[in-house]
Amino acid sequence: MNAEPAFRGGGLTGFDGARGGLHAPSHMSDFEAARLTVRLGAVASNYRAFQRMAGSAVVAGVVKADAYGMGMIPVAKHLAGIGCDTFFVARLQEGVALRPALPRARIFVLDGAPRDAVPTLVAHRLTPVLNSLTDIENWSAAANGTALDAAIHFDTGINRLGLPREELDVLVSEQMKRLKGINIVLVMSHLACADDPTAPMNRMQLDRFRAGLATLPSAPASLSSSAGVMLGKDYAFDMVRPGVGLYGGNPQPSGPNALSTVAVLMGRILQLRHIAKGESAGYGATFVAQRPTTLATAGLGYTDGLMRALSNRGAGAIGGVRAPVAGRVSMDLVTLDVTDVPASALKIGADIEFIGDTITLEDIAAASNTASYEILTSLARRVPRRYEAIA
User: Fold this and answer.
1) Residue 226 CB contacts under 8 Å (≥ 6 apart), including other chains
2) Among 276, 311, 185, residue whose Cα is nearest residue 238
3) What CATH code would you report for 40-247?
4) Among 161, 172, 158, which Cα is nearest to 211's?
5) pLDDT of 53-112, one tens digit each?
6) Active-site residue set
7) Check: CATH 2.40.37.10 for 263-388?
8) First to last CA, the chain
9) Are β-strands 293-298 and 86-89 bridged in parallel, bridged antiparallel, or unpaired?
10) Three-state DSSP state, 23
């Protein structure tokens, strides 16, 4: 059952044989070479799982990068519908786009408060995460006798965004002056190695965070994203910020994934053919058949986010049976060796799963030699999205 109207990615997706050219499909039953189903019910299930793990801490929804490729607006609205009232985005433009959909939510913008962003932050009631003394100065100046909400982010070892130690020391010694007009609603930092629960850096950053909190005005605290929540209650503080875990990624890949599958990426068989032993398939002839082989060509390629690194490494699944990628992934197409798939399942238009319940997100990430984050955020808007309320 669809919870939201199905969304089509931008661009032209149909072929008009009579006119010999492309056309925009006129209705949802038009042929689609591929589709991405987003299980909003699974997002909700994963959110509740983080609530259980986080205890009394608030669970915010991280919806940056278009909700990790799943669609920021439908995902955020669904989370709001089950009680989530705090969201994180990375870019100012993301916050501006999200505000009309969630007029009463608190929306944090991780990129800070550059001077030219301040008017827009104020106009759209967005809460900046202040990452430097310059950010703090800009936001204090914008207050102009009033009080503006903000989060303070100080670095505890990742050496990315956040006030470095020397700037934190200045802020602590001059906080009456520096924080004038700023209402601190959150103090946060970010873990570097939480995906490895054995990493000593986790405890080191926890100790540094506690030490920094003791020097700043009292405010709710947040240290953990998805993997950090799994380190235990010591890391939860007052708020946690799950991201990839909401979307079914395994935050700690060394262990089993207890989270629900959100993204289901399907291609469809466009053509079937049989080749003899010794014949090749694809650009560069990198696949050579070692036996009489049946090949299925599907309408997905690296333009759609099916990474070229899957060439001769990845797999799809037809009716729950895995079929290896045969040859190179090309721009719009990928070919699979379906010789071992039951013939009854092989027909033009049949679905091939590339991410889902058989080929997991972690499977395709490992085959692509990358992280699940990159797989999700690389899925192109050309692939139509459909939204399901059930998990």
Assistant:
1) 50, 242, 243, 244, 245, 246, 249, 251
2) 185
3) 3.20.20.10
4) 172
5) 999 999 999 999 999 999 999 999 999 999 999 999 999 999 999 999 999 999 999 999
6) 64, 283
7) yes
8) 11
9) unpaired
10) strand
